[in-house]
Structures are given as C-alpha cells and as structure tokens.
Amino acid sequence: MIILKNVNKYYETGGEKVHAVRNLSVTFPNTGLAFILGPSGSGKSTLLNLLGGLDTPDEGEIWIEDRELSTFSRKDRTNYLNSYLGFVFQEYNILKDLSLKENIVLPLEIQGYKRKQINQKFAEILNDVELTGLEKRKVNQLSGGQKQRIAIARALIKDPKMIIADEPTGNLDSETSRNIFNLFKKLSQKCLVIIVTHDEESALEFADMIVSISPDGDSLKEVKQNG
Ligand code: ADP
Least packed by Cβ within 10 Å: which of 9, 51, 128, 180? Predict the structure, then answer.
C-alpha cells in the first residue's frame, strides 16, 4: 500500500514559484490499475517522480508499506528503485542496437544475475507480455505496440510490486492502445500499476481507480474507485 499525505511540491524558476503538486492525499492499494488524469502542466510527471523516489516532496509524507520515503537511506532508496519499482516510459527507451532479449534482460544484467536465471526469467516474461516467437527479431523489425511490450517486459522482469507508466500509449493507434491497456489490466492482478494518460475514455474503461488532477484549485481527487 502506498499512502500520500498532504504532499506538496514547489518549483522556483526565475523568481516565480510554481505549485506543481498541491496538497495531495491519496492511497494506492497493493494491486489494481490506477490512472492519473489531468491536463498538461497539472503536476502528473512531478507526482510520478515523487512516487518513484526520484524527487522529494517539499511538504507531506509518502508511505511505502510501513515506511516513510524520506527516512530511506541511500541504499534503501536504490533498492526501492531497483526492485520495488518498474518504470515504463513514453518513448519506450528501447536501445536500438540491442536485440529484443538484450533490451528486456538489461536490468538483470546490470544487477549481475547468472545466465541461467536470466534465461529462465526471460522465457517467463516473454510469455506474460505475449512476445513469444519474436525472440530473434531486431528492435527495428518490431511495431510500436511490440516495442511497448518490450518496455513493459523490462519493467516486469525485476518482479516489481509497482509499475509506473508515463503515457504508455501516447504513440500508439487506438487498437494497439487497447491491447496494451488489456495487458496492464492483466498484470495489475499481481501488482499495482499506475498509469499517467490523457486518454480519459480508456481510463474510465480499464481503471480500478482514477486520480483526477484539476488544473487549478485543490490538486487531486479520486473520482472512481471500483472493487
Ligand atoms: P504534467 O506532467 O501534468 O504536464 P508537470 O509535473 O510536468 O506536469 O509540471 C507541473 C508544473 O511544474 C508545471 O507548471 C511545470 O511547468 C512545472 N515544472 C515541472 N518541472 C519543473 C522544473 N524542473 N522546474 C521548474 N518548474 C517545473
């Protein structure tokens, strides 16, 4: 469970103070699909950075299970980033010079996993994201949807408890987007998936929970909570 209590984040640029996250209190469950909706500039990316431990709030608390994020040591924070969390970025962040497999297993290579473990995890994950049979393809021989599945597989391979995805269907057509949302829905049975999107229609269709950020006034509120 992740709990945000009265979280505020300000930026100061050229003497101007921007209130990027405005007094946000929200509780995310352990599993399920949560969407964050809001217009451009409403603080969605800032919120993802706070949840990801990449930035810290100016006021308020972020509780990860039973610990407050600001009390994490440097080592705990690195562990949190490496094992608790998987990020899926908008532009896939796929490395074109690497194969499909090399892209997916990169986090395990970095963490020094043994070859046998890597191969085993890779086979499982490939099946989960429905890319089996495409192992030999080069990245430039894959569609946008398939590249997004690689990015999701790379986030999943560490067995994270939470997946954070920033506009994961921003560059995909509507049918491919639906397939990707369906995949996230399936994955969210086992972990928490938080997706930032402009796609309100899909959020309403797939979400267990929606956090909607208004451009002015009192920051965020939950507008839907299923199940
Ligand atoms: P969104 O992701 O919803 O588009 P952001 O979180 O990127 O919104 O930005 C929220 C507000 O904070 C915007 O007004 C933006 O200009 C400002 N902002 C974001 N990052 C910075 C930064 N590093 N320095 C100064 N202002 C920032």
Answer: 128
Q: Where are the domains of the chain?
A: 2-225
Tell me, using a 6 A CB cutoff, whether residue 12 lines ligand 1: no
Question: Which tens digits make up the pLDDT trace of 30-49?
Answer: 999 999 998 888 899 899 99
Atom 26 of ligand 1, residue of closest alpha carbon: 11
Q: Helix and strand tally (H, E) in the chain?
A: 7, 10
Q: Is the CB of 13 under 6 A from ligand 1?
A: yes
Instruction: Give the whole-number percent of the chain exceeding pLDDT 90.
Output: 63
Chain-centre distance for alpha carbon 89: 8
44 lines ligand 1 (CB under 6 A): yes
Upper half-sphere CA count for residue 186 (Cβ side, 13 Å)? 12
Which fold, 2-225? Rossmann fold (3.40.50)
For residue 46, the ligand 1 atom closest to its alpha carbon is 6
